[in-house]
Write a structure and sequence with these properties.
single chain; globular; Acyl carrier protein phosphodiesterase; 69% helix
Amino acid sequence: MNFLSHYYFDRNVTDCYFILGTVLPDLLKNADKTIVLHPEKLQHPNNQNVNSLIAGWNKHLEVDRHFHSSDFFKTHSHQLKKELLPAIQGSPVKPFFLGHIAVELILDNLLITTGKLSVDSFYAHLSSCTHSALEHFFGMAGLKDPSIFLRYFEKFKKDQYLHTYAEPGQITYALKRICMRVWQDPFTPQHEAGMTEIIENYRTTLLTDFMLIFSEITKKMDTI
């Protein structure tokens, strides 16, 4: 799941460090894909903010595990792959990768456009967190130099680009930016136009029952 979909599950939580923890694995991956951390079993003896980051991190892993094993994800990522394939003929991008990311971004779009959460509230949580807590967390997790992440984190908060996910065309742009981490010049303007049309149509398909996956994951977590 993407940032806002993760946030949905804890949108009423007041602990900004827990909220940051729920998106921290993806933020870290975006900042530097070579960094791999496993803080899941760590516990700080006297720093609750660090422990909240760890708890949020573990919540992220739990949500992703349920999502990626769900029939919803398997069905819709496969269907999107099939529908996007003709639109990206000649592109180096793997269709499965595109279908996977597209369904996650569409969910974020639907959460915004149906008023299920506040993007401003999400960013307010992130802005309330201090670098000191993050530096303590990274020190425990074995990351000696967090400067690359901290620079990315400040830019992420400043740009607030998740607001743009309300527009289907921006979902295509986000897909392009993600693909550019792997492939240079992944899409032509013709590819992008075709992708946007398919994404707009698929968004309409999901509109009526997309919340079922959030209810399903919530129930699974509640029974653990």
